[in-house]
Amino acid sequence: MSETGGLRLSLPARAENVAVARHAVAGLAEAIGMSEPKVADLKTVVTEACMNVVLHAYDDDGGGALEVNATPEDGALLIRVRDYGTGIRPRADVERASLRLGLPLIAALSSSFNIRGGLGQGTEVTMRLALAANGADPVDAAASGASAAKQGPDLTVGAELTVVDDLVGPVVSRVVSMLAARSDFSVDRLSDAVLLGDAISAFAPQGFDGGPVHLVIEDGDGSVNLRVGPMASGSGERLRRELEVPGLGASIERLADEVGVSSDDQGEYLTLKVSQGT
Amino acid sequence: MISLHGEHDLNSAPDLNKTIVEAQQQGVGIVLDLSPTTFVDSSILAVLIDAQRNARAAGLGMAVYTGNGLAGGVRRILEITGLDGELRISPDRDAAIAAVREGLA
Predict the structure, then answer these.
(1) Is A50 within 8 Å of A21 (Cβ atoms)?
(2) ipTM of the complex model
(3) Which domains does chain B have, with CATH numbers?
(4) Best residue in A39, A46, A98 to probe B by mutation, most B CBs within 10 Å?
(5) What's the CATH code of the domain at A203?
(6) Are A188 and A125 part of one and the same domain?
(7) What is the pLDDT of residue B25?
(8) pLDDT-above-90 percentage for chain A
(9) What residue ranges in B1-105 does DSSP mark as E strands?
């Protein structure tokens, strides 16, 4: 089976991160042409599966890893939600109707699903949703590409995503917008954050050499921080210098509070900070 | 009237639950405005179920106001779980308020 473009996301299993996973996967789904009603279903199943991890996988509140993979496959999107905890099990202190509804909702809204794991092995929930409302359309060709993900630099704060280059824009736009909205950004700064996501999207085809792109997104203290890469040597600086936001003529440096370029042995990374403003 | 704007999930469920419980403890009936809501998950549904149960037990009113219609995903999750038949749902703001004033839930 040939590999197709997709998304890998790893983040601490905490309640506030469920929305990050939901928006990242929804952004990918919209970019590959999933129908609107199916995207709504997708948001529900991703949320419910992630919620199971947040509530039931780990003993402590700090949150072990929550991993989400989304891969386009034969007219459908395959989503895997994985943890490395002690397995889904009932816990009296969090026992609510949500626990009883989560898995039935996944069952009702996905065309197939399975749960794998057991005591001490962690749990993996795999779900498949058709892209088209009637489940018949083939996968959009734009979704094809390499998906083998390298482990990026060891930055564990916040969310780490790996996504094939032509899907960077939609995923970044969605996640950044959501985080900015949650951080009580003013309307102007929210719109700047969205424009930044779009700007990176416009740059993606020339900047990322067709390989997987690693994103680190931090949501902290009234700001959203982004680290995007690796890019080919010189691309980070070129993006910083030349990037024009389509239709507006505003530069990336006017939209972000801080713009920087860093590099490691894999290539260059663009770092951006957008804060909520006044 | 409690309006839920945007997306609500596990992260906001405790705050919503607290707001509703505090109102109910003061003997106040509740109209939940879901017209500006774009997403709810099962933890929010659990809050709604609890709120209705508590309202009925206390003889307080509770209704859901939908305005010009629920967002597709919100409507679908209510339908799939059967909550659209359990909750007192009204597209009419005045009717929702009137029902709550009468103590209907």
Answers:
(1) yes
(2) 0.93
(3) 2-101 (3.30.750.24)
(4) A98
(5) 3.30.565.10
(6) no
(7) 96
(8) 22
(9) 2-3, 6-8, 30-33, 37-40, 62-65, 89-90
Q: Report the alpha-carbon distance of residue A243 to residue A162 in Å, rounded.
A: 22
Closest Cβ opposite residue B77 in set A22, A37, A44: A44
A90 and A15 co-located in one domain: yes
Report the alpha-carbon distance of residue B20 to residue B13 in Å, rounded: 11
The crossing angle, in degrees rounded to 10, of helices A168-182 and A187-207 is 160
> In B, which residues are within 8 Å of A41 by CB distance?
73, 76
Closest C-alpha among B33, B36, B40 to residue B80 = B40
Same domain, A179 and A94: no
- Residues 7-66 in A contacting B (C-alpha not used; CB under 8 Å): 15-16, 18-19, 22, 36-37, 40-41, 43-44, 47-48, 51, 54-55
Same domain for A165 and A133? no
Q: Which residue of B has its CA nearest to A42?
A: B73
From B10, B45, B73, residue closest to A43, measured CB to CB: B73
Q: Which residue range forms the structural domain that includes residue A116? A: 7-141
Of the residues A107, A141, A175, the one at which a domain ends: A141
Report if residue A177 sits inside a domain.
Answer: yes
Minimal C-alpha gap between A218 and chain B (Å): 17
Give chain A's domain count: 2
**B21-69 pLDDT per residue, tens:** 999 999 999 999 999 999 999 999 999 999 999 999 999 999 999 999 9
B47 or A243, higher pLDDT: B47
B81 contacts chain A (CB < 8 A): yes
Query: Based on the domain organization, do A194 and A134 belong to the same domain?
Result: no
Query: Which residue in A has a C-alpha nearest to residue B75's C-alpha?
Result: A40
**pTM (whole model) above 0.80:** no
* β-bridge partners, A67: A10, A82
| Same-domain check for residues A241 and A135 | no
